[in-house]
Specification:
five-stranded parallel β-sheet; elongated; Trp Operon Repressor, Chain A; binds adenine; about 35% helix; alpha/beta; single chain; Alpha/beta knot; about 230 residues; 8 helices; 2 domains
Amino acid sequence: MRIDILSAVPELLESPLNHSIIKRAKEKSIVEIHIHNIRDWSKDKYKRIDDYSFGPDAGMVLQIEPIYDAITELCSARKYDHVIYTSPDGERLNQKMSNTLSLSGNIIILCGHYKGIDQRIRDFLITKEISIGDYVLTGGELAAAVIIDSVVRLLPGAMSDETSALTDTFQDDLLAPPIYTRPADFKGWKVPDILISGDHKKIKDWQEAEAYKRTKLLRPDLLEENE
Ligand code: ADE
């Protein structure tokens, strides 16, 4: 998978995309992530990429020209499955969407900034708008990092134990069951006996029952969606 990110503040993306599972996935060539500065496509001598919005509202808007040039250049080099824009107006990210995105070959993610981007970019160049929740961030970079993190960990080989992504919370519309590690008894706080019984079938049944119990208690909406 190849991901191209277009950003006005690329520095914001460097740390989240250079550690842990994503770092390993890049090293293993499971994913290529290219972070581009939109300013590189600015024709302005001061590398400006924003301008005042038309109308009475105050605030700066990302201009269409550098973004059009950036997307056109990328799309002339290869085919992209999605040109995504991160925005609070978009479709809300969930596990199902991350699963679907993880099947893509190449994607572009455009990060919004300032007051937003010229509407014509959204009308003519963007194929999908994604929100990570009902709140407003300063820019789309952190949202892009969240989307990429949730997608890359699903790519085959990205996690050392491939099955662990399948047992994630939400993967089957259930929260994950509780997990424990040693010591089995910490100051009298004990791990459930069943987990140290060695009976794998019973442990699986217990985990399924706990996942259901936890979902019913904390996120009953997930169960209702399936009824
Ligand atoms: N940009 C600003 N806020 C955002 C959000 N909630 N989701 C995605 N992109 C955003």
